[in-house]
Specification:
four-stranded antiparallel sheet, seven-stranded mixed sheet, 169 residues, 1 helix, mainly beta, 9% helix
């Protein structure tokens, strides 16, 4: 194999390793501006090994505020407040939320759905926040998308979704 081909093979290998896993349960944005109120979507492109999705539980990074989930017909929506967090007063104020759950629905493996959240990002840019997502499926199957890389570029079976907080434009 000549040098040029070797370099090409290495570059290809590296890009496969670094590419985020699009075919998993992910968010629709990998970067979010700081100090902003935003809509984000949890994207569910398949079930658990072919079984239909019956529930989505999202572990909310503690750095986020203003979390308000969007109800979805056919799914029971619940939130779990962060421990000890007081409900702030004032316009559009919400108590910090540590988990949001849509349950009791049925999303066949062949179909796609999005679960929507309104959030408020941290005032300062720089952090990488991880969204852990638990996917409940028919037949008691569960996929926990909660793994975090121990080093950059590490390939994970069920990664938590990383979101970088970038400077507000
Ligand atoms: Cu996948």
């Amino acid at each position: 194999m000549n040098l040029r081909t070797k370099r090409l093979a290495l570059a290809l290998g590296a890009s496969l390793l670094a590419a985020p896993a699009f075919a998993h349960v992910t968010l629709d944005q990998a970067e979010l501006p700081a100090d902003s109120f935003l809509r984000i979507a949890i994207r569910v492109p398949h079930g658990c090994d072919g079984a239909a999705t019956t529930g989505i539980r999202v572990q909310i990074p503690p750095e986020l505020r203003g979390v308000k989930p969007m109800p979805l017909a056919g799914w029971t929506l619940t939130t779990v407040a962060a421990a000890g967090a007081a409900a702030p007063a004032g316009h559009d104020a919400t108590a910090p939320v540590k988990e949001v759950s849509w349950q009791g629905g049925n999303l066949p493996d062949a179909y796609y759905q999005e679960f929507i959240l309104r959030i408020q990002t941290p005032k300062e840019p720089g952090a990488t926040l991880y969204f852990g997502i638990v996917q409940d499926c028919e037949g008691g199957k569960v996929t926990r998308w909660i793994e975090r890389p121990s080093q950059p570029g590490e390939r994970l079976r069920a990664p938590a979704y990383p979101v970088r907080i970038v400077p507000k434009p």
